[in-house]
Structures are given as structure tokens and as C-alpha cells.
Design brief:
Shape: elongated
Structural class: alpha+beta
Order of helices and strands: EEHEEHEEEHEEH
Number of strands: 9
Oligomer: single chain
Strand content: 25-35%
Distance between the termini: 36 Å
Radius of gyration: 21 Å
Number of helices: 4
Mean pLDDT: 92
């Protein structure tokens, strides 16, 4: 199992929610969509998309973009940028969104078969970024028995959350039988 990052106990309901960092979350199921946006990238240490591509095989960036349109059917093309400094984060756009020129730069392109598909492109990149930043969790909900022992009643992995575990708790409430602690005040 993965590292435990948070335990929330609702003693009144006799429930325990445990949130683990899902360290072995696989990018394959995030990127396994031939119909949605596609990522073409070049990086020596990280898998950042579905298709590895060497920009040196093209005479210019414009030639590579034209190849993506002609050969891959791209109708929307955005540049993919990465910032690496002890970890990695990625964003898509027309210009480098990161302020540090030494630790950031363009690493590829994100394409879509749809015109003006910025929304789906940014959704895919946000999901990829959450995977890269370790914001994917594994949850368990347990019932506290009369003897004090816990019985696991549900578990789920692959829960994305960039809200400091509020998204995990909301998911557990909606999908796993978790009853949140009452709000104070």
C-alpha cells in the first residue's frame, strides 16, 4: 500500500477515513484515450504523454506543428511546458508560464482533433500534473466495531485531489459511505 497522509475519525458515526498517497498510480489509464487530446513530448526522465517525439527530426517548430496537423489530424495545438526543481509540474499554453528560464522550458505539444479545444487540453494537462505532483490518493473507509477493532467497508484508488484532502473526503462521502464530521460554527 501507499504512504498514509491523513486519518479522519468520526467517532459519533463510528467511521474512519484514511487517505494514502497513491504512489503507484499509473499514467496509462490517464493517457489511454485515443479520441481525446494527445501529448507529443521529449523528456529524458519523465513520461509526459502518449507519444514520444524528437523535435530534432524536424527542420523547425513550424514544420513539426504542420506535421501534427497533416499527419495526426490536429486542429488545436498548444505547447507543453515543464518546470523542474526537485519535482516537476507541467502546463500547456502559447508561452512559457513559468518565470524561471533555467528550470523550465518547452517539452512538447498537446493536440486535439477538435477546433478550439483548450478546455479538454487543459483538463488533461491538469490531470497529468496532479499525477506528477503526487496528488492522486487511495482511500479506505472503516467501521469501528464494538470491540474497538476496525472493519474495512470500502476502498478506492486513483482519487485526484488538489484541495488538501477536501476532494478526497467529498469523494468518500459521495461514493464510499463516509459520513463527514459536522461543520463547526
Amino acid at each position: 500500500m501507499s504512504n498514509l497522509v491523513e486519518t479522519i475519525t468520526n467517532e459519533e458515526e463510528g467511521l474512519v477515513l484514511r487517505i494514502y498517497c497513491h504512489e503507484d498510480a499509473d499514467l496509462d489509464w490517464v493517457l489511454d484515450d485515443d479520441e481525446g487530446p494527445q501529448i507529443y513530448y521529449k523528456h529524458r526522465r519523465y513520461r509526459l504523454g502518449q507519444h514520444e517525439i524528437d523535435p530534432m527530426n524536424f527542420g523547425s517548430e513550424e514544420e513539426l506543428i504542420q506535421w501534427l496537423k497533416d499527419e495526426k489530424g490536429a486542429k488545436t495545438v498548444k505547447k507543453l511546458y515543464a518546470y523542474e526543481h526537485g519535482g516537476i509540474t507541467v502546463k500547456a499554453g502559447d508561452e512559457n508560464p513559468f518565470s524561471c528560464p533555467w528550470d523550465s522550458g518547452q517539452v512538447g505539444f498537446v493536440t486535439s482533433h477538435k477546433e478550439d479545444d483548450d478546455e479538454n487540453i487543459h483538463a488533461l494537462i491538469k490531470t497529468l500534473d496532479m499525477c506528477l505532483q503526487g496528488q492522486v490518493y487511495y482511500l479506505t473507509v472503516s467501521k469501528i466495531q464494538e470491540n474497538g477493532e476496525e472493519e474495512e467497508i470500502d476502498l478506492c484508488g486513483g482519487v485526484f485531489d488538489d484541495t488538501y484532502y477536501q476532494g478526497c473526503e467529498d469523494f468518500a462521502k459521495d461514493q464510499m459511505g463516509w459520513i463527514p464530521l459536522p461543520k463547526k460554527g
